[in-house]
Design a protein that fits this description.
It holds the Pfam family Aminotran_1_2. By secondary structure, this protein is α/β, with parallel strands linked by helices. The chain contains 18 helices and 13 strands. A hairpin with a 4-residue loop joins β2 and β3.
Length: about 500
């Protein structure tokens, strides 16, 4: 009788080959093994029936007026262009001389839109402020010069309510324990490390923050970065490559799209938050495999967001997790807008839906919203996952050694790291007070009387109450009721000014 081989001592590639040879289906998929139990199916059915998101169509009169407004602007813009070409009217745009033979900076239509539609209304956007970027801000008024090509400050400052920021819990403030802790960090560590994490840019503060983040999101390990956008764009390429497949939501953030493209992996897109579309793409990908190599995909990575910043929609996480398990894919969850603001404990959509964080392979988030700081993190399971990396490295260790952000970018500023540590401990209740619970509760209030009882009236925009009231006033609002993002649709461009 031949002795059985000890698989733990086999080389990783041999184990992978051995494992694959035992599977009759591509990607190791087995319909019998991955069937959901009757109880799980029942729970998912209840979830689908109770999950409601609003995406109203524009009323007919609003759609007609919007088209007429754009037609009006385009018509008169064409007349202006004609008059400029005939020499009847002088162009006020800056002009570069001696640029014959240069390629135009913008395509023709974009240039037309920029000159005649954006510039005349640009005074209504990008207004500078002279105060803390909190819930109440002071706008610096400007007057239009040269038809919008230049703006001149008038010296007038207007006090206004800020509904255009992601300061969900009010931590973007200039007083309080977080500010005091950040000031002490500047005195002790200075403003910046001026080095990458691979060189002299790793402080004890960064290690403390990474341990805290991992504990907060329910993962064994995490790594922090100085910029939220690059947390996605430079780290996704470390996880997948040319032999792999990325399945991406159609409305994913630009940073996720950039990271997916830089990875070199094949990208397939499914309809926004549509589980039938996701399953269709998954099934086809598993059955057909890589059409170029005529082999199974090395890895299949599903990339989604917890809360979508432009639509206000919330990910159908329980269904995504069920599909991920069924088709043996990996899940990358971007919680930039949900971490800190969604769920009874502020721990994101996993907290909101009661999903085990272990069911999400890679969790990403940023500190620029709920924590009033900057940067981002990636948290993952610290085990040898051979389906993710073909050599025996843990995910976070692999990112730590391979990420361009870790190797080339300057590490997170010490006062910023301390701001995140302080605000996160407040949310977790580890500061010795109930401040975090108060802020989370206040954020979720749904009626005016309860809001007036709280002492955070000047610190937080109460999204549930705000959503309900604007809907009662007849405005079209997109998204899910649990989303802190409330897209208020204004159809006519003139109304924004």
């Amino acid at each position: 009788m031949t002795p059985s081989k000890d698989k733990s001592k086999m080389p990783v590639r041999s184990r992978l080959t051995s494992r694959r040879s035992q599977k009759s289906r591509k990607n190791g998929f087995s319909s019998e093994k991955n069937q959901l139990s009757a109880l799980q199916e029942e729970k998912l059915k209840e979830f689908r029936e109770s999950f409601v998101e609003e995406f109203q169509d524009a009323p007919l009169y609003a759609a007609v007026m919007s088209y007429l407004f754009y037609f009006y602007m385009a018509f008169f813009a064409c007349i202006k262009d004609l008059m400029i070409r005939l020499g009847v009217r002088k162009s006020k745009r800056p002009k570069e001389y001696k640029n014959e033979g240069f390629v135009p900076l913008y395509p023709e239509f974009e240039d037309f839109y920029f000159r005649h539609i954006y510039i005349p209304y640009s005074w209504a956007f990008n207004k500078p402020i002279s105060s803390t970027a909190g819930p109440i801000i002071q706008l610096m008024e400007r007057e239009v010069v040269d038809g919008g090509w230049q703006h001149r400050l008038t010296g007038v400052k207007t006090r206004m309510i800020n509904t255009g920021s992601y300061n969900y819990l009010g931590f973007a403030e200039n007083v309080g324990p977080c500010v005091e802790a950040a000031e002490e960090a500047v005195k002790k560590h200075g403003l910046a490390c001026c080095s990458s994490r691979h060189e002299f840019g790793s402080l004890a503060l960064h290690n403390e923050l990474e341990t805290l983040v991992a504990r907060f999101v329910g993962k064994p390990a995490a790594m922090v970065f100085g910029m939220g956008f690059s947390t996605n764009s430079t780290n996704i390429p470390t996880l997948v490559g040319k032999k792999d497949l990325i399945i991406s939501d159609a409305l994913n953030h630009s940073s996720l799209v950039t990271g997916a493209r830089l990875s070199g992996a094949t990208i397939r897109v499914f309809k926004h938050n549509d589980m039938k579309s996701l399953e269709s793409v998954l099934r086809e990908s598993v059955v057909k495999g890589n059409p170029r190599r005529h082999r199974p995909w090395g890895k299949i990575l599903i990339i989604v967001e917890g809360v979508y910043s432009m639509e206000g929609s919330v990910l159908r996480l329980p269904e995504v997790v069920a599909l991920k398990k069924k088709y043996k894919a990996l899940l990358y969850l971007d919680e930039a807008h949900s971490i800190g603001a969604v769920g009874p404990n502020g721990r994101g959509v996993t907290d909101y839906f009661g999903v085990d964080p272990a069911d999400v392979d890679i969790m990403m988030g940023t500190f620029t919203k709920s924590f009033g700081a900057a940067g981002g993190y990636i948290a993952a399971t610290q085990v040898n996952i051979n389906t993710l990396i073909e050599y025996s490295w843990e995910i976070i260790d692999h990112i730590r050694g391979s990420s361009h952000s870790a190797a080339y970018a300057s590490s997170m500023s010490p006062p910023v790291a301390v701001q995140v540590i302080s605000s996160m401990k407040i949310i977790m209740g580890e500061d010795g007070t109930d401040e975090g619970k108060r802020r989370l509760k206040a954020l979720d209030e749904n009626n005016r009387e309860d809001i007036l009882k709280t002492r955070f009236l000047s610190a937080i925009i109460y999204f549930r109450y705000f959503r309900r009231r604007v809907k009662e006033m007849g405005y079209v609002v997109f998204g899910h009721n649990a989303s802190p993002i409330i897209p208020l649709v204004i159809f006519a461009p003139g109304n924004t000014a």
